[in-house]
Structures are given as structure tokens and as C-alpha cells.
Fold this sequence. Notes:
The chain contains eight helices and no strands. It has helices spanning 4-24, 29-39, 41-47, 58-84, 90-103, 105-124, 126-146, 169-181.
Amino acid sequence: MDNTLALFVLLPALVFVVGSDLLYRRIHNLLVLVLLALWFVQPAAALLGFGPWQQLDTLGVFSAMGACLLGAALVLLVGCGLFFLGRVGAGDVKLMAVICLWVGPADQLAFLIVTALAGGLLALGLPLLARIEQLLGHGVQRLARRFPRLGIQTPIVITEHCPQGIPYGLAIVTGALYILFIPIHS
Length: 186
């Protein structure tokens, strides 16, 4: 994916996802909606003659949009099935679908494969990951006590309600970073 806009939009969002999912096991709907809205800037900019899709004519822009949307819709459909089976979180599904838009049809499969592999590695390292979550959670809690005006909530990973399983946002971020920084179509 050769897209500077994606780099500037996705990197801060991915950093936020890591912290939010690792400490609170939550991927915010607002983040997903902002990423979705900003993705629509690409085709709109192309129709105005600039941006990453500027070389495409109008039909090409709509064709590229359709291919991106089709892949994202399939991910959303399969992900909803997995969510209803209790295998994955709703935020994870929505984030994967919106990142599929950003990576484009040529890299969607690679994104999904790398994400699945990263999820498998996270499952293997779950005891270590749980320890890292605890350390980070206690660090955030100390920060919250020191600066109460920041209004930092207690991380859920250090409460009695600590969720089980993998913070899959980390795997999704790994897949997205792979596509951003290790292009397979070079």
C-alpha cells in the first residue's frame, strides 16, 4: 500500500488501539467511525484530481471503492458470525473491516493472514502478555493517582473483572503495520 494519508491516519489510531485494547479491552466505536469517514476522503479527493487514487478515472475510483467495500463487508459478515458465537469482540470485527478498506483489495488477504498469525502468537504467549498487561495497568493506575485531573480510569486488566482471552486488537495492529511497512507488491 503506497498511501501517505493511510500512514498519517492509521498510525495514531493503531497506537491508541494498542493501549485501549491492552488496558481496557475496548476498541472505541468513535475511532472506527472516524477511520471510516476519513477513508471516504480518498475517493472524494481522487474525483477532485488529487490523493492516492488520483491516477484513476471516475469509473476506476468507483471500481476501487467497490472492491475495498466488498472485502470489508465480507470481513464484517464473517466477523459478525464469529462475534455471535462468542469467539471475537465486536470492536475487533469493526476495526478489521475498516482497516480492510484502508489496505485495499490487493492487501486485504495478506492483512487477514498476518492478523491471524499474530493472534496465534499472542495465544501462545498469553501468560507473558497477561503479565505485561498487569505491569502496564499498575503503571497507568499510578499515573492516575498522581494526576487525578486527567480522569484516567482504572484499567480493567487490574480489576477483579479482568477479561479472559486475547486482546485481539494487538493482532489487528500487527497485521495493519505489516501492510503499512512491508509492502508485498513492491
